[in-house]
Amino acid sequence: MAFFRGKRRFQLVASMLSAVLAGAGNAANAGDVSNDVNFTSDVIYQIMTDRFHDGDQANNPSGSLYSFGCSDLKKYCGGDWAGIAQKITDGYLTGMGVTALWISQPVENVFAVAPTAAGDTSYHGFWARDFKRTNPIFGSMADFENLIAVAHAAGIKVVIDFAPNHTSPSRQGDPLYMEDGVLNDDGTFVASLNSDTSGVFYHNGGTDFSTYEDGIYRGLFDLADFNHQNGTIDGYLKDAINLWLDKGIDGIRVDAVKHMPFGWSKAWMNSTLEHRPVFAFGEWFLGDGEVDPLNHKYANESGMGLLDFRFGNAIRSVLKFGTSDWNGFHGMITDTATAYHEVIDQVTFIDNHDMSRFHSVGADPRRADMALAVTLTSRGTPVVYYGTEQYMTGDNDPTNRGYMTSFDTTTRGYNVVKKLAALRQANSALGYGDTEQRWVNNDIYIFEREYAGNVVLVAINKAFTGSTNITGLFTSMPAGTYADELGSLLDGNAITVNANGSVDAFDLAAGEVAVWHKVGGASAPTIGHVGPMMTRAGQAITIDGEGFGASAGSATVGGVAGTVLSWSDTQVKLQVPSVTPGFHSVNVNGSTAYTGLEVLTNSQVSVRFVVNNASTVVGQNVYLTGSVHELSNWTATNSGSIGPFFNQVVHQYPSWYQDVSVPAGQTIEFKFVKIDGLGNVTWEAGSNHIFTAPASGTAEVNVNWQY
Ligand code: NOJ
Ligand code: NOJ
Ligand code: CA
To answer: Is 380 strand, coil or helix?
Structure first.
C-alpha cells in the first residue's frame, strides 16, 4: 500500500519534470544516465544531504538531534531527498549543468547523540546501524526512489556514499555508550560491539595510523570496525549494496578504502560489478604532498577509481594557499598520468567535507572560480562540493559543512560550472584526452587536452597584477579564430590560430582564464574509455570512443574477438571472450590498444592466508605467490607477488597473514616466499600447498612455513 503510493507519486513528479525541462529547453544539456560505467563526461555535484535543502519538514527529528536554523552544525538540520529532488525540478541543479550527484550515505544511522561536549550526531551519514534501511531523517524508501526517478528524468546520475568499513562510535567494555555500534539487518539485531558472539567486529582498539596494517585491523577513530572475513558481514555488505543497486543508483563513493583489506574490497567490488556494473570511486585520503604507491595500486587493481587527492592537494597549493606554482602542478599531471592506469577514472575536486572549503573569508572568490575552471577542464572526473559555487566558507569540520546559504544562479562560480559542464558533454577531449603543457611559468599555465582530433586549450594566469603577452604558443587546433568558451566570464579573449599551429600573440590578464575548443572527428577508431576495468570472461564491458563506424566490426580483448552485444560509431558493448586471466588490451577495429583491463579467473572470494613460523632476517618480508593470476602466476618479486604480508595485529610474527581476493571454487597451488629489499628470494621448501577456495563467502587457510 505504502509502496504503491510512493511509486505513483514519483511517476507523477517525473512526468511533470519532463514537461518542465522540455519547456525550459534544458534537456539538451542533460547527461547520459544510461552509461553507469563511464562518468568521464560528467560533472558530479557533492551534496551533504542534511545540509542542502529541507523539502519535507515532517521527517525532521526533534530534541537534541535537531538544530532549527542549523545554528548548531553538529546536529541534523533538516535537509533531505525531497529537498534535493526539488532543487532538480526548480532548475537549480539542471541549470548548473551537473550530470551526477553524490549524496550522503543513505542508510539508517544511529539516533543516539554522542555524550561529547558538542553532542555530535549522525547528520553526515557515516554512522550506519542498518545498511538495508533508509535514514528516515533523509526520507523513506519511496522518497529515495522518487529522487532517483526525478534525477534520471533530468539526465542526472545518482552516486551514493557507502561506508562498509564500520558502523558507529562505540567503546569496548561500555555497552551503554551510544548504541554500542549496533548492526541490524532490516530491523533484526545482528551484533553490537559488546554483544558480538560471532565475531562480526574486530576488538583490536583504535588505530594510531602508524602502518597500513594497523589502519585496517584496528578501528578508525572509535567506529566499530567490521571483520570483513566474518561470513555474515561479507554476505551482509554484498546484499546491502545490491539492494541500493536495485533501486537504480548509478555509482558508489566508497568510504575509507585505505582502512579495509584490499583483498576483501576487491572481492566485494567483483560481487558488486557482477550484480550490476556501475562506476565506483574510493576515498583513500592523502595529505598535502603525499604520494603513496599503495594508493596507485588500489586504483589500478581494485575495480574502483579513487578520489584524486594528489590533484586536489596540488590545485589547492597553487590557487588557494600559494605554496606551489604551475610547474609543480604540471609535475603532478605527468606523474599521475603514468601512476594511474586510468587517470580519467580518478575523481578530482578542489574541496570536500573533510578539508577546508576552497574559498575562505577575505579571499578573492575569483580564486575559486579559477580552480573550478582548471578542474572542470582537466583529466579525471570532476566533483563540485555543494556551495562552492556560492562561495561558502568554513575551515574546519563542521564549519565546512554549513547549511546551503543560497541558490543564486547568477554567481560567477555557478556560471563557470554551467559553461564547462556543457563543454564536457560537447567535447570528448575533456573526458578522454591526454594533457600537454603548451606554455608555462610560475603564474601561467596553458594546457591542451586532445583526443581523436578534438581539442580543448585552456590558459590561466594566476598573477594578482599585470598581464603577460603570450608569444610562441602552439596548439593542435586547426587554423581559425576561436572565441572564449567561458564567454569572458573570467576575462578571456578570442585567439587566432595560423596554419602551422602558431597562435597570434595576445595578452593574458592577471586572474584571466580562457578556454578555446574545437570538436574534431576521429579519422580512425579511437577508444576513449573502457568500463568496468575489472571483469571476467562472459561479462559485458562498455567501450566508448569515436570512429568505430556505423556497422558492427571486430572488438578484441587480448587479441581475441568478443561477442558484440551492441555497436555504434561511439560505443561498443562487448562480451569478454575467454582469454588467459590477467591484464589485457582492448581494441576496436584495429584501434590503438586501450591497456590495463583486468580479466579475472572467475568470481572472487576473500581468503585469509596465514603462514606460521616464518622467521625472517632484517629487511626480509613474506609474500605469497601461486598458480593463478590472482596469486601472481608464480611471480616472486616484491612488486609482483602478493604482499608484503602483515605480522602485527591479527597474527604476530613469526606468523604472517593477508586477506586475498582469489577465484571462487578454484583449486589453487601456492607457496610463500621471503623477499628482501634487494629482491633476493627465498622459496619455501617442499611441495606446493593446495587449497580449494569456497564457491562463495570467505575462508581461511593456515599453514606452517615449510623448511
Ligand atoms: C571519511 C569520510 O569522508 C569522513 O567524513 C568520515 O568521518 C570518515 N571517513 C569515517 O566514515
Ligand atoms: C615559451 C615556450 O614556447 C613555452 O613552451 C614555455 O612554456 C614558455 N616559453 C615559458 O618558459
Ligand atoms: Ca527534512
So the answer is: coil
- 344 three-class SS: helix
CA separation for the pair 354, 697 (Å, rounded): 34
Ligand 2 atom nearest residue 441's Cα = 10
pLDDT tops 60 at residue 41: yes
Which residues have a Cβ under 8 Å from the Cβ of 466 and sit 6 or more positions away? 510
| 440, 442, 444, best to mutate for ligand 2 pocket (most atoms within 8 Å of CB) | 440
How close are the terminal C-alpha atoms of the chain, in Å? 67
- Report which bound ligand comes closest to the CA of 82: 3
CB 428 within 8 A of CB 396: no
- The phi, psi pair for 161, rounded to 5°, reads -75, 145
C-alpha cell at 150: 526525478
Task: Assign residue 69 a region (left: φ > 0; alpha: ψ between -120 and 50; beta: otherwise).
Answer: left
Amino acid at 456: V
Q: Residue of the nearest CA to atom 2 in ligand 2? A: 439
Residue where the block lists cell 519535507: 56
Quick check: CB of 474 below 6 Å from ligand 2?
A: no
C-alpha cell at 352: 570536500
Q: How far apart are CA 210 and CA 226, in angstroms?
A: 20
Q: How many other C-beta atoms are found inside a 10 Å radius of the C-beta of residue 696?
A: 14
Using alpha carbons, list the distances in angstroms from residue 366 to 23, 92, 458, 490: 33, 21, 16, 8
What is the distance between the alpha carbons of residues 620 and 674, in angstroms, rounded to a whole number?
6
**Is the distance from CB of 352 to CB of 358 less than 8 angstroms?**
no
The number of beta carbons lying within 10 Å of the beta carbon of residue 478 is 14
Spacing, Cα 256 to ligand 1 middle (Å): 7
Ligand 1, atom 6: closest residue by C-alpha: 126
Compute, in angstroms, the gap from residue 407 CA to the centroid of ligand 3.
Answer: 18
Backbone angles phi, psi at 604, to 5 degrees: -110, 150
Strands 223-225 and 166-169, bridge-based pairing: antiparallel
Residues 6 or more apart from 430 whose CB is under 8 A from it?
A: 41, 376, 377, 423, 424, 449, 456
Q: Kindly give the distance from the C-alpha atom of residue 167 to the centroid of ligand 1, in angstroms, as a whole number.
A: 11
Query: Which residue CA neighbors atom 3 of ligand 2 most closely?
Result: 472
Question: 291: which 3 cell numbers?
Answer: 604520494
Q: Given pLDDT bands bounded at 50, 70 and 90, which one contains residue 13?
A: very low
Q: Are the C-beta atoms of 567 and 552 separated by less than 8 Å?
A: yes
Helix (H) or strand (E) holding 24: helix 2-24
Q: What pLDDT score was predicted for residue 314?
A: 98
Task: Say yes or no: CB of residue 579 within 6 Å of ligand 2.
Answer: no
* CA 439–ligand 2 middle distance (angstroms): 5
Which grid coordinates are listed for 276? 550490476
Locate all alpha helices (DSSP H) within 276-323, ordered by sequence: 293-301, 309-316
Q: Is the pLDDT of residue 346 over 60?
A: yes
Contact 532, 501 (CB under 8 A): no
Q: Is 324 exposed, middle or buried (0-12, 13-18, 19+ CB in 10 A)?
A: buried
Whole-number average pLDDT of the chain: 95
Looking at all shown ligands, the one closest to residue 167's CA atom is 1
pTM of the model: 0.95
Residue 31's pLDDT is 80
3-state DSSP assignment of residue 385: strand
| Cβ 441 under 6 angstroms from ligand 2 | yes
Residues involved in catalysis: 255, 283
> For 357-405, how does the pLDDT look when each residue is reduced to its tens digit (9 = 90+)?
999 999 999 999 999 999 999 999 999 999 999 999 999 999 999 999 9
Burial class of residue 349 (count of CB atoms within 10 Å of its CB; 0-12, 13-18, 19+): buried
Is the separation of the CB atoms in 161 and 107 below 8 Å?
A: no
Which residues are near ligand 1 (CB < 6 Å)? 126, 163, 220, 255-256, 283, 353-354
Mean per-residue pLDDT for 31-36?
92
The letter for the amino acid at 103 is I
**Ligand 3 centroid to 20 CA: how many Å?**
24
Residue 225: pLDDT above 50?
yes
